Amino acid sequence: MLTTDDLKARIEGSIPDSRAEVVDLTGTGDHFRATVVSPAFSGLSRIAQHKLVYDVFGADIGGPIHALSLSTRAE
Amino acid sequence: MSTTEPTLREQIESAIGEHDVLLFMKGTPERPACGFSARTVAALEALGAPFAAVDILPDPRIRQELSAISSWPTIPQLFVKGELVGGCDIVTEMYETGELAQALGVEPPAEAPDHAPKAAEPGAPPLQIDTNHVDRS
User: How far apart are CA B51 and CA B23, in angstroms?
Assistant: First the structure.
C-alpha cells in the first residue's frame, strides 16, 4: 500500500523544482489525487503535462496505483 | 486464423480514425462502471455532443493496446478527430473552461456551469470491438 508521502516524494524527486500535494481519495492507498506545480510544465499542453507525471510512476499506474487524478500548473 | 482479420490494435486504430468523437471507458454510457468514466460521459452529454464509446472491460487486451497506441495509462480516454484529448481530469477542466465545446464544435451551454455535471443521461450505444476474431499470436 502506498502513502501520499510516497507519491509526493516520487513526483518531487523526478520533476524539476516541482511541488506536489497528494490526497488519498479513498483511504485505501490506491486512489490518489495530485496537484503538481512545476516550471517544467511551462509551454506544454495539458496532455503533455499529465504525461510527465504519469511517466514518474510508469507501470505502477494500473498496478498498485488504481487511479491518479491530476491537476497541473506551470506557475 | 485468417491473416486477413485485423489485429486488435488495427481495430482500435480504425475506430479512432472513423469516429470524430470516441470515448474509451469502463462500462457503457448508460452504465458506467467507474466514476471517472461517468464524469467524462456526463460532460459530453451535457454539451449534447454525439459520441461513440468503447467499453474496455470485456477484454484486458483492449486497454493494453489502447495505452500502447496513446501512451496514456488510464481510462477513460477521449479522442477527437483521431487525437487524444485527455482523460477525466482534462475533459472536466476543458468542460468548465468552454474548451471542450470548442474542441467538439458545439455550442457551449447558455449559462456556463461552475462544475461539470455529475449525473449521466442515456447516451449512444457502445461500439463493439470484436475481440473474438483477433490474431492472438
Answer: 7
**How far from A36 is each of A8, B51, B55, B122, CA to CA, in Å?**
9, 31, 30, 35
The tens-digit pLDDT sequence of chain A (75 residues) is 899 999 999 999 999 999 999 999 999 999 999 999 999 999 999 999 999 999 999 989 988 999 999 999 997
Q: Is B88 on the interface with A (CB under 8 A)?
A: yes
How far CA B75 is from CA of A27, A66, B55, B116, B135, in Å, comes to 21, 10, 10, 18, 24
| Terminal alpha carbon distance of chain B | 10
Q: pLDDT-derived band of residue B99, with 50, 70 and 90 as boundaries? A: very high
Chain A positions in Cβ-Cβ contact with residue B70 (cut-off 8 Å): none
Under 8 Å between Cβ of A22 and A32: yes
Residue with cell string 488495427: B10
Q: Do A46 and B90 touch (CB under 8 A)?
A: yes
What pTM value is reported for the model? 0.82
Which residues share a beta bridge with B112?
A: none
SS3 percent helix, strand, coil of chain A, rounded to 5, is: 40, 30, 30
